[in-house]
Amino acid sequence: MIKTSEELYVIQNNQQIFEAANKPKALFVLAHGAGADMSHEFMADFSARLITENISVLRFNFPFMVKRSEDGKRRPPDRMPKLLESYLSILSTINTTLPIYIGGKSMGGRVAATLMNETISHDYFAKICGAVCLGYPFHPQKKPEKLRLEPLQAAQKNILIIQGERDALGGKEEIDDYKLSQFCQVVFVEDGDHNLKPRVKSGYTHQQHINTAIKTIVRFIDENN
């Protein structure tokens, strides 16, 4: 069972990485997307930045990624029921007095948003204060008709979505027409793609947008603690 403390330390295996901030004010459980695992540069960079903001981070691999780490073979993502089960199993290992926030990159964020609408009676679930989605996959690429809005329309708890304006899985012009729950807050980064990365001609850098995302998450956590 993972226990949080005020000492900086790291627990790592092929299923999860836990990094504790020196004086944590919250624990953020960060799930990966469909194509890259918990150790991807994007995930590692986000974790490192959150830790400097006194937010401990737990990253983990979904079952299909655990299998990939073991044999190197690429696999499609598990179906949503199995993804939800995996996320819940990770949450059940946490023993902390800190407020918990769940979220993830792309698919991981969608799983977290879906999880927010589940009816779970366990004590650890009651500690979840909100969810954060980094590049929510509103629809598959080039298939805008296949919308994935249900978790966001049914939301009864606070969900923060940080989205690139030109995200191929849901850009600003599309999202502005969607009817989402009042509990959903969407923050756009200018000219950002699905990884929040802007084009050079925009005048912004990827690091600037990552910094904006971190500041937005910290503010969201401070407001909901």
Total individual domains: 1
So, the CATH homologous superfamily?
Answer: Alpha/Beta hydrolase fold, catalytic domain
Question: Shape from CA axes?
Answer: globular
Please, what is the oligomeric state?
single chain
Count of extended strands:
10
The CATH architecture assignment turns out to be 3-Layer(aba) Sandwich
**What strand line-up does the widest sheet have?**
2-3-5-4-7-8-9-10
List the secondary-structure elements in sequence, H or E: EEEEHEHHEEHHEHEHEH
Helicity, in percent? 25-40%
The rounded Rg comes to 16 Å
Helical run tally: 8
Biggest sheet features: 8 strands, mixed
Q: Write the CATH fold name.
A: Rossmann fold
CATH top level class name:
Alpha Beta
Beta-strand portion reads: 15-25%
User: What is the averaged pLDDT score?
Assistant: 91
- Structural class from helices and strands? alpha/beta
The termini sit apart by 24 Å
